Amino acid sequence: MLINHQPSTINYQPSTMINQLRKKHPRLLYQKYNYQIVEQQLRVTFKFFLEPDITFRPAVVIPIDRKLEIKQLENYIFHLGLIELISYWKATCSPEIIIDAGYINQEQIDWLHDLFIYGLGEFYYTNNLDFTAQDFLTITCSTTATTSHNLLPNNKNNGDLILVAGGKDSSVTLEILKESPNRKGTLILNPTRAAIDSIKIAGYQPPLIVKRTIDPLLIELNQAGYLNGHTPFSAYLAFLGTLIADLYGYENVIASNENSADEQNTIFHELQINHQYSKGFRFETRFREYCGKYLTSSVNYFSFLRPLLDLQIAKIFAQFTSHHLSFRSCNVNQKKDSWCRKCPKCAFVYLSLFNFLPYEHTIDIFGEDLYLKPEIQTAFKAVAGIGTHKPFECVGTVEESRLALAMSSQKYQAMNQAIPDIIELANQEISQAHKFLSWQKILNQWSEHHYLPPEHENLLRKNLN
């Protein structure tokens, strides 16, 4: 569901800093990857060289309990490095990327270039970078096709590998898929308490845990004034999840991205900027096509919640009360394992659950009535698209937020309490004549733009109804 917001009013001004960085660091080279298997761990290190004199060595450690053929394992590792590269390129936006570590053809280069543009849209916007120039980014491969990583025959994989983050979405996926007879496992990248506990609460076996390490030098450069910003994290998860699924013999890699993720935040240089691009349907489609052609035909990546909007997921989540005091979605206070109660993410999760839970229970989760908290009012306005573009956070659509805010008035009326100002404001932004009809339409909608296998679709429909 897309809403046509007004284009951003930001005007591009040539940046002295970006020009200096691009001149000083003209090329970024993906030179190689190294790996070893030690104590049932696959330990991978990538080597990126930023001309003239900077070397990055990010790493990832993956649990392993069976062997893939070396060529297949190396193909996965090589591709994981291609996605890892994004985080290091954005520090300087070097005009050229050279792939030395393996071979990719022109179609693959075009696919990767597309991800650099769409997946980094928010980064370009927040740093005021014009990415439209023809020479902005060139990707070339120095390796010949004779060293190509070949797609290997189909393995007989089975079962579901569920990606878990600790929020309400993956908790809903965990709970619904408990009903499936399929073999099931879970995967967490750099685990949080909330993610681990959500798996325990849902009754699954302990998760597979992957640890990704950023090179500290990148952080030092960011602190010294090099560029920083949002990257397509879910793209990394898609490649990583596919690797893990093949390692452990799973047929399906299951994300918990929803239909709401397709809505843009703003427009910049005629590009729809979407904070959640790599959670969206376009990326999911492109990754599935790429995976089947260049990675494996043994693994099926899809998002279980793709047919639904955020409010529908919140309604389902409201039923799973054992998760309510454990889940976390706030990025600001992630390390503190708490809700900051000020950011757009906290605002959206609050308004999305408010209409589906008893008032007192909502307060138990968040510690106070956020509709009455002055420090978060700007965030409520932002997620509802009132006076600004949709914030760069993983939140639902503007229409969902406005309706959820407006519908919240009923609870205050039932308690004979004054309706908070933010709810009154939201009521002014929507058609009162169609408010209840729109609410029911959202709660009953089903997008056909998804890749759910029939058995998974049936389970989701059952829980929606």
Automatic annotation (TrEMBL):
Cell division found in the keyword field: yes
Q: Mind telling me which Pfam families this protein's record contains?
A: MurL_epimerase_C, MurL_N
Bilayer-crossing residues are none
Record keywords: Cell wall biogenesis/degradation included? yes
Q: What class of enzyme is it?
A: isomerase
Domain of life assignment: Bacteria
Q: Where is the MurL C-terminal domain?
A: 327-419
Q: Which InterPro entries match?
A: MurL, MurL_C, MurL_N
State its Enzyme Commission number(s): 5.1.1.23
Q: What does this protein do?
A: Cell wall formation. Catalyzes epimerization of the terminal L-glutamate in UDP-N-acetyl-alpha-D-muramoyl-L-alanyl-L-glutamate.
What is the name attached to this protein's record? UDP-N-acetyl-alpha-D-muramoyl-L-alanyl-L-glutamate epimerase
Q: Which organism is it from?
A: Gomphosphaeria aponina SAG 52.96 = DSM 107014
Gene (name only): murL
